[in-house]
Amino acid sequence: MTMVKDIDVRGMQHCETTTLGVLLRHEGLDLSEPMLFGLSSGLSFIYWDSKGMGFPFLGGRVKPFELTRNLAAALGLELMVGETTSPRKAWHNVAAPIDAGRPVGLQLDSYHLDYFSTKVHFGGHVVAMYGYDEQDAYLVDTDPQGGAVSTSLAALARARAERGPMTAKHRSFTLAVPSSPTSPQDRVIPAIKTCADAFLNPPIANLGHRGIEKTAKHVPKWLQRSDDPREDLPRAALLMERAGTGGALFRNLYRDFLAECAELIDSSHLRTGHGLYAEAATLWTQVAALVTAAGESGDAKNLVEAGSILDELSRIERDAMQALSML
């Protein structure tokens, strides 16, 4: 058995921030999950629908691995990424750092992991690996998935080799903190402004505050959009509230990030943004509850109300980001 020593196997709410936390704590840098998410300019929004999809997808963060790249750039971290089509090379990319005493991040499809509670293909899942033996790999996943967990090496290989939406070619990565790292406090304002600019100026109408406004128009028709509303609508709500988002489609995490920043920086713009995101987080949870109720009851009135709240959310989040852009 090969194990990296002194690993803090704390699982958090979101997969990529959980993994970043494991890798950075091993390097001596311990940041809260909201701070990891916020410094990565992680908050976003996307309404994704197409003819080939069974049901629309609502996303609340930047695309997979962009969060990791953003954090490394913000803090001046050394990010080493391995990608390959060769399973043999892919295993070497993981085993070599672990053998040398360093945990590794992996992007893979959660469907194949032995311990995963919900068997749904998701190729953007990220875990930290800190050990292995002849049969199993030892991982850190989110707290809801068990924190410190294990899966068979065969299952891990299948998860890493899967191809489809959001997958990567056996992607693995390590992080190193330089001898004179950038202070996280110094990067708070640039990270917030980067996030705000992207949210306020989306290139297409499916993203940012425009995406939320578009969702408000489409949600009232979701009973007709679905072939199986009792299945599709509660699942959509579950993805918003519990599928590694920290609740409220990542708005809880960003609210808490802004609260942590407000303790470091005296700014009325920051306090305004925090207050509005606190309001937004509560409303997103209400939307999820209404979508669930619509699926279970078949009553479109719930979706009409959800659409009205989403229209308000588009305004609230736009106002929040406009305030934050003035930092």
- Measured on Cα atoms, how large is the radius of gyration? 20 Å
Q: Portion of residues in helices?
A: 40-55%
Termini gap: 50 Å
Tell me the number of helical segments per DSSP (H or I, 4 or more residues long): 12
Q: How many extended strands?
A: 9
Average pLDDT number:
96
Assembly type of the shown chains? single chain
User: What would the principal axes of the Cα set say about the shape?
Assistant: globular
Main sheet attributes: strand count, strand direction, barrel closure? 7 strands, antiparallel
Strand content: 5-15%
Order of helices and strands: EHHEEHEHEEEEHEHHHHHHH
Sheet/helix structural class:
alpha+beta
Low-confidence parts lasting 5 or more residues at pLDDT below 50?
A: none
Structure in words:
- Residues 14-142 form the Butirosin biosynthesis protein H N-terminal domain.
- Pfam families: BtrH_N, DUF4872.
- Residues 155-324 form the DUF4872 domain.
- This is Lantibiotic ABC transporter.
- It comes from Streptomyces umbrinus.
- With 327 residues, the protein is α+β, with helices and mostly antiparallel strands.
- The chain is 50% helix and 14% strand.
- The protein contains 12 helices and 9 strands.
- The chain has helices at residues 15-26, 33-39, 66-75, 87-99, 153-161, 184-200, 208-218, 222-225, 229-241, 251-262, 268-297, 301-324; strands at residues 2-3, 43-48, 57-61, 78-82, 104-108, 125-132, 136-140, 148-152, 172-176.
- The strands form 2 sheets. Strands 1, 4, 5, 6, 7, 8 and 9 form a 7-stranded antiparallel β-sheet that branches.
- Strand 6 (125-132) and strand 7 form a beta hairpin.
- Helix 7 runs antiparallel to helix 12 (301-324), helix 9 (229-241) packs antiparallel against helix 11 and helix 11 (268-297) packs antiparallel against helix 12.
- The radius of gyration is 20 Å and the shape is globular.
- The termini are far apart.
- The model has no long low-confidence stretch (mean pLDDT 96).
